[in-house]
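Why do we bother with holo predictions? Because pocket geometry can differ from the apo form. Keep that in mind while you read this record for iron/sulfur cluster.
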Amino acid sequence: MKDSHGRVIDYLRISLTDRCNFRCIYCMPEEGVQQMPHDEILRIEEIVQAVRVAAGMGIRSIRLTGGEPLVRLGVVDLVRDIAGIPGIENVSMTTNGVLLPRMAADLKAAGLSRVNISLDTLDAEQFRQITRRGELQQTLDGIDAALAAGFDPVKINAVAVRSLNQDYLQFAELSIDRPLHVRFIEYMPVGESSGAHGCGWGKEDVISCEELFDAINEQARAKGLPELAAAGDGRPVGWGPATYFAFPGAQGTVGFISPLSRHFCGQCNRLRLTADGKLRPCLFSDEEFDLRGALRASDEEAQRAVFARALGAKPDDHHDKVGTERGMSQIGG
Ligand code: SAM
Ligand code: SF4
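The structure, written out:
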């Protein structure tokens, strides 16, 4: 599938649910989250059908996200069904890791190729402050479980928020002793327009990846430690335009994802499917196309037409648009 700007679109991110066992400060409000009604959320078999159609049109990689994808009932069977669809080359997941100790082995056996685990701090108190409902040890256990189950690579996603004052060097050092690929992500203004899912984003809280990179190396120098160098062949397999570095001799890498300071729209290869069945051409645009209606009408031609319309609507760039109606947990981050 090529879009109208000549980009090959072969990657679909699917939000399995808008529900979550955390309430991260950059993603959801603490209380009063407006949840989607159950009957509006795609059923498991509808998601499988959506992937079948997508695969027929050229989608090769699927990422399951949310909300928290592991709170969705039937997720292991869903992974198995999707992984078995002809044309699908890999199925990955982004999770907060809490349920991985229970589920990692089954997910691996079902055909999940890779996991990204979200973790923003190694300080237990700060973890509670950020997630509002979680304990650091739960996510650390999730990382152990992912490695023990044989996932490779295991990536750790950290959102950098200036006012949180996270210890970036300590975090980057997670990549030294184990094959963990730490990726810093710029804090994005998603879900701000409606107020309902706002995260209190402000420009002043954004730290550009360049600034982060310099801060990590400065902290390393101050401690007499080696600095980050461009990663060579050890670059982890993956999708998404992260720039990777590594500490000398480290088992993993440190990546920087800069959707704001350096747009990678020119390399964009994705569409998103929201938990309620809307195809979304761009994270930063509120334009959506209703796939659920076509799925519920069992009309495969109409389903293909919705994919084609969403593809045709992919903008060339997000042009620094700030704020979207829907929050990250609804769109699927
Ligand atoms: N619950 C899962 C998790 O946390 O990994 C999957 C869904 S979560 C919305 C997906 C990713 O979006 C997480 O890595 C999270 O840190 C990131 N995210 C959420 N809100 C963000 C924001 N405002 N800016 C940047 N990243 C954000
Ligand atoms: Fe939940 Fe993930 Fe959002 Fe945190 S970032 S509230 S874990 S969906």
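The first strand starts at residue 11 and ends at 15.
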